[in-house]
Specification:
73 residues, mainly alpha, 3 helices, globular
Length: 73
């Protein structure tokens, strides 16, 4: 029960941070937001001892934007 509650809390924190990620950027699309959610949830699940760390959204978000840019070049 506690584990499920923690997972819901982490998911809520991740979604809250995604909504704050690159608000003014036209380069950060809805597709990026979906990818960011998947990556952050995966990291939180795989690294249970660390979980989700606030600010990771900007690091991963930048990587997603750079990866897309690299694919178009």
């Amino acid at each position: 029960m506690l584990r499920q509650s923690q997972e819901v809390g982490v998911g809520f924190e991740i979604e809250k941070d995604i909504d704050r990620t690159f608000l003014d950027s036209t380069k950060f699309t809805e597709s990026h937001r979906l990818g960011l959610s998947i990556v952050l949830r995966s990291i939180a699940e795989l690294q249970k001892d660390v979980g989700y760390v606030q600010g990771l959204n900007f690091i991963i978000g930048n990587l997603l934007i750079m990866m897309e840019h690299r694919e178009t070049v």
